[in-house]
Task: structure prediction
Amino acid sequence: MSQLEVQTLCKAWGDTRAVSDISFSIEPGEFVALLGPSGCGKSTTLKMIAGLETPTSGSIRLNGRDITRLPPGQRGLAMVFQSYALFPHLSVAENILFGLKARRVAVEERNRRLRQVTELVDLGPQLHKKPGQLSGGQCQRVALARAIVAEAPLCLMDEPLSNLDAKLRNEMRAELRSLQQRLGMTVLYVTHDQVEAMSMADRILLLNQGRVAQMGTPQALYSTPENTFVARFIGNPPMNLIDTGQHRIGIRPEHVHCHHQGEPARVLGCDYHGADTIIDAVLTRLGDQLIKLRLPGHQLLSCGAELKLNWLPEHEHGFCAHSGQRLNTPFAPLSTYFPHTESYHVA
Ligand SMILES: Nc1ncnc2c1ncn2[C@@H]1O[C@H](COP(=O)(O)OP(=O)(O)OP(=O)(O)O)[C@@H](O)[C@H]1O
Result:
């Protein structure tokens, strides 16, 4: 039985349809990232699962129990918020144990869980401090500890790392993921950051305009995007989409090579990233459509330089020019215009 089962969930405010017919399930111990651009309905979905927003229609089941209309306190869920939501006048220990006290869990049991969790999140020396005396990363650990001691069947996390600086965020991602795996926690994690979702999640639920664009493993979304929205949202720089009139052909920047035979292109500029260089060019025989390629190392190509670009036919993704849906039927690949031979790197 799935831990969480969401069926045809909808939320509308007047004419605004924030969430339309969302269905998905989460298995026990799974880490699912709820990903999508601003305004796609992530928070609304999370709030409906938490009981902070009433669905217009649809159902939510937790461990087989229908919780659609239950008040938040009776759902037995743990939550970690972006703002940490710590009580400033309570100590770290009191903050961590607040929920257990409210549920009248026995003192011995509370202390046992506190000892266990402080070791897990490395907060031992901070237990008597107030949140105002802690760093952002430590506050985040307190919020995590509070969710862990709840031992809830599902933990909802709403952009919990977005207030941390880039370095700490990276460290906390790895820490959080390893804790979740060690404890077998089931997590639904809201983020708008595809790197976070790709690196942490077992599966990603990608939303677009209140609907499910695709749900699957990070690899599935990357290698077989079901539509042009997924193709462009996952991957940085995004997948190139080239209109051929009949179809839209997708090619990832890392799959484009410079080649002595290939589609003529003119360089617009280079962006050096250390390990590689992103080159912007236009395809001169295809209406000057923009194409990006990722080449290893430091590439110095001047604006206006002429290139020939090629890629393997199996790296092409075909999409319907009108609906943007992935083509399951064979399509005429662009790369048949020029036979593939050994590629070379730009000097
Ligand atoms: N209380 C409300 N009343 C009316 N419209 C709302 C309300 N809350 C959200 N919306 C609308 O519903 C849509 C989805 O909003 P939601 O906050 O779920 O998006 P989100 O994906 O979480 O965005 P972000 O990443 O910016 O937080 C948006 O168009 C938003 O304006």
About this structure: The chain has two domains: 4-223, 238-337. Confidence is low (pLDDT under 50) at residues 337-347. The longest helix spans residues 166-183.
